[in-house]
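Q: Got a minute? One more chain.
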Amino acid sequence: MNSLLFDALGDQSKAHRWRKDGIVQQLARQDIQILTESEATAASPWDIVCQNGQQNTVLKQFKTFKTLGLGNTYIKGLWRCDRIDLLCKRLFDLDHKAKTNSILFEMPNSLPLILEQALYRLFNVSLMRQNDVAKAHYDLPTALYEGFLGKTMKYTTGDWTGLERSPENLSAAQIQNLDYWAAQLQLQDGDIVLDCGCGWGALPQYLQTRFDLTYIGITISDSQAKYCRSKFSNSKRYFFYNHSYHDAYADILSRSGVDQITKCIFLETIEHGGTRNWPKILRHVRCVMAQEGTLGIQAIGTDHPVLVSDPYINRYIFQHLSLGSPSQLDRAIECDRQFIKYSENNMASSYPATLQAWHYYFQKNWLKIQPHIEKIVDTTPFQTTEEWKRHWEFYLLFCQGVYASGTYPQLYQLTARPNFYL
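A: Always. Here it is, folded:
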């Protein structure tokens, strides 16, 4: 990471040159100021307040690496902001006069980001490096996730319809989201459910008290698989496998004592597969789904097709995440006439409240989380536990602001049924 950080350029002539630079003007159009600590009395809650002498470093990193550069300099403590969520909302808001967002939405204007785009265009990175995200993110200490996800341990958005958007309602919002899917999939006793991305067992925990069915959960995270096997060790017909949805399911179905499934759900997991792989991922599902079955997909997506997610998220959070637009999801569902879509919904407006609650509980429980991070910080890209904490703060608040803007990232819910027999 140190290679991404430049030494401060303190002399006044360079500072003057930066103030004339287009990116400062673009930020000003979004009502964002870049200030020093000596100017902080004039700051709004969303302004970037840099350490004295670090203003040029922060600007240069942001211009070159966009959100990755902004995040890196925050991790190093080179700037602060009272409300990073409001800052990021303004970064992703559209400039209505220009009818664009020249800060973030244009083609990458630096060689590193151009090369990153080329890499994902030329190679099927999401498939080739599919295990990276498990090792770097999902295999982090379980105490971290227990500390901020709440009682349900559900690492996807909740449905906040009709609920006050306060952290105390996080569990209710998560249950409401699972209620939605139980209704959409028409879950009933006797079903055989394939959960493509079981996480820490939020869905099976919900199902076991409501239905008499067979549940098969898959994950590529060793930590998640072990956690769920221990948690549900006394639950009959609940199976957990370390298995990739890039692979066929015949073997694990046989080991579970069944030969087909009736329901399948992807709860914000298909994104990790890469949009170019979605047709094949769904073909594996279609091969083992009964003709009367139902497919549900809840996916973080975008307003337009993209090759790879945001630079910061791709580097540190969800490596090789490939966000898709509705058209890409539709093409995957319709490929070879495998499925027929019969419902679609966009619930992106619920994500800011979910992320706000996660950040609230992360801060509230940090002292319980901290000892577990101290044990593994040497295996991360960060030098100290404090840097790691700032990284996680930036992640949660950045995403909260991005979703609050309502522009680039979206959240789609699709339901489909099998089309022709294969």
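A: Residues 1-106 form one domain.
Q: Perfect, thanks.
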